[in-house]
Amino acid sequence: MAKILIVDDEVGIRELLSEILRDEGHDIILAENAAAARAARNAARPDLVLLDIWMPDTDGVSLLKEWSANGQLTMPVVMMSGHGTIDTAVEATRIGAMEFLEKPIALQKLLAAVKRGLARIKPAHAPSPLGLAAFSRSVPLRDLRKRLEQMADKSRIILLRVGPGSLAELCGRSLQRVGTPWLDLSLTTLPIELNVLEGARNGVLYVPELIYLSRPQQKNLVFAMDRLERHAQTLVVATEHRPEELVEHGWEERVLARLFEVSLAPPALAEIRDEIPEIASQILLHYVEAGEVPPRRLSSAALNALRNQPWGGGYGELKAAIKSLALGTLEEEIGMDEVAHLLVKTPTAALGLPLDLPLREAREIFERLYFEHHLQIDGGNMTRLAEKTGLERTHLYRKLKQLGISVGRRNEEGSA
């Protein structure tokens, strides 16, 4: 029969529901609070969850939101409460709960709800991209999400002033509602058409770095900016450069004035180092839920090693590292040795980097050595290079061109 997870802080209710459902032939998993429910859900992958609303650590509605945000709401959830209100029931249903049972729960209502839940056809689909809502236990990320949502409530344009270790993509995804489009304006140089914007209605338009946009792409951005209200869209752009630097790269001052009107400086990964273990765990869980990697978990030592990395490439670099670790590890648990093997090695070519040059020149030399090193060890495979560096493909090609590194496109998807 089915695996059913019962989450309730009252032992009497857990035992009663467990006895009834075991008599029906179901396998029962019990959890006394939200922390135990998280662990049980990840370990057992239940077919259905009976979830109490009022619990001592995290309430059931917040846990439901967390599962929905990180792509784990893949099973029917029936909410339970002895003190529920209509507003609470409506909110839980909006988030994704199947239905609401009021305590004391009548036997027939319980069995009927379980039967309906198990009969529900669950279409296979990839979980939504991770947003800040997936990290509900992190105070800095929770506060960052509130600031973003507060800004988005009053402005359709948000500029993220970022630096190395950027969380720009994660911020942008946080403003993307479930099921709505995501349009990266940096991925095409062709003139954007009205039907494209109409297809992205209610969605998020995104630019990961303004300075890399060509003139045609800048025109596309202005075209989209002028129609944000019409298509009910939010524009999220990021840059680590000042307006005067962008003017030197061909941007018009009037456009920059609009873009910089509402801005936020999200923390870099290095500034929230203590949050990296949770971020890494959620990224891995998301990949597992999406079927992109085999079931894996990070050991405590591995999480600590990830926490101590600089992550200059930001969220994209961290995601690429987690995916590489999960695909390259043979055991179910990813240990510290795997992390060290993937991340700690220093490219030997960079050891001779002169330190008496101006920073701009030294950085350019390092970047050239860095990219040439990885191109060499991966045989020119651009897919692997993009994953390792955490750069999107368009930006990667533009970066290599700026550094004078010639790369043929025949190896974009090349084999190992």
TrEMBL record:
<keyword id="KW-0805">Transcription regulation</keyword>
<dbReference type="GO" id="GO:0005524">
    <property type="term" value="F:ATP binding"/>
</dbReference>
<dbReference type="Pfam" id="PF14532">
    <property type="entry name" value="Sigma54_activ_2"/>
</dbReference>
<keyword id="KW-0804">Transcription</keyword>
<keyword id="KW-0067">ATP-binding</keyword>
<dbReference type="Pfam" id="PF00072">
    <property type="entry name" value="Response_reg"/>
</dbReference>
<dbReference type="InterPro" id="IPR027417">
    <property type="entry name" value="P-loop_NTPase"/>
</dbReference>
<feature type="domain" description="Sigma-54 factor interaction">
    <location>
        <begin position="134"/>
        <end position="327"/>
    </location>
</feature>
<dbReference type="GO" id="GO:0000160">
    <property type="term" value="P:phosphorelay signal transduction system"/>
</dbReference>
<protein>
    <submittedName>
        <fullName>Sigma-54-dependent Fis family transcriptional regulator</fullName>
    </submittedName>
</protein>
<keyword id="KW-0547">Nucleotide-binding</keyword>
<keyword id="KW-0902">Two-component regulatory system</keyword>
<dbReference type="InterPro" id="IPR002078">
    <property type="entry name" value="Sigma_54_int"/>
</dbReference>
<feature type="domain" description="Response regulatory">
    <location>
        <begin position="3"/>
        <end position="118"/>
    </location>
</feature>
<feature type="modified residue" description="4-aspartylphosphate">
    <location>
        <position position="52"/>
    </location>
</feature>
<keyword id="KW-0597">Phosphoprotein</keyword>
<dbReference type="InterPro" id="IPR011006">
    <property type="entry name" value="CheY-like_superfamily"/>
</dbReference>
<dbReference type="GO" id="GO:0006355">
    <property type="term" value="P:regulation of DNA-templated transcription"/>
</dbReference>
<dbReference type="InterPro" id="IPR001789">
    <property type="entry name" value="Sig_transdc_resp-reg_receiver"/>
</dbReference>
<dbReference type="InterPro" id="IPR009057">
    <property type="entry name" value="Homeodomain-like_sf"/>
</dbReference>
